[in-house]
Write a structure and sequence with these properties.
By secondary structure, the chain is α+β, with helices and mostly antiparallel strands. 24% of the residues lie in helices and 21% in strands. The chain contains 5 helices and 10 strands, in the order αααββββαβββαβββ. A 5-stranded mixed sheet has the order 7-6-10-8-9, with helices on one face. The protein has a 3-stranded antiparallel sheet with strand order 2-1-5, covered by helices on one side. The longest helix is centred in the first third of the chain and has 26 residues.
Amino acid sequence: MPVARAFRWSNLASLAASAALALGGCMQTATPVAMVQPRPDLDSMAYGQPYNAPQPVVVASNGGGGAIAAFSNSFAASPAPMPVGYAAPMAVPVRNGASYHLDAGDKLRVVVYGQEGLTNSYAIDAGGSITMPLIGAVPARGRTTAGLAGEIGARLRNGYIREPSVAVEIETYRPFFILGEVLAPGQYPYVPNMTVESAVAIAGGFSPRAKRDMVTVTHSENGGAMRAVVPLGTPLAPGDTVFVGERWF
């Protein structure tokens, strides 16, 4: 009986080893394989000494495909997401003060020191010029006040006044225009530091059908025009056209 039992256990061990080898061959894969490490406390209870867990076995990938490879690649480390930036609404450029470019409709105060006959208020006509005594038409469109003063001084110096001293300031800006869903659309005098919201207020406020969060502003300068959809806090420049659209619901 002991011999038969030993023989039986030997056969069972051989069968178990053969099955393990067969399964090992079937389950081999070209993708990394991680082993679950046993708990050291359970091994200590069973064998009286802590279990030294082996390092995870990694099988080098040979570039094979298949469902297992696709599943493994889906967990591959991906690059960190790039930060998202939100662009601020495009604002219409404002050209007030020393950098303001003159245009038709602006009214200027020209002072020529010591020359009362030349000191006066002049409006820029549709051709973009002002007309002064002695020197006639002086182009003003696209110039700054300092640039126009220099041009006037140069012309007066050419045979009229030896050392002219000229100053130019804006007396009245050209008007702005507001159209669309406001109570009183039309043309209004420009006030320095205006915004779209104050322009709507000057035009009587929004109509009941107005779209109240964004408007369209058209800005013209140097012979070109720029149109932008802007929020109500956007600054306005002289000559701008504001269009308030109609809301859909």
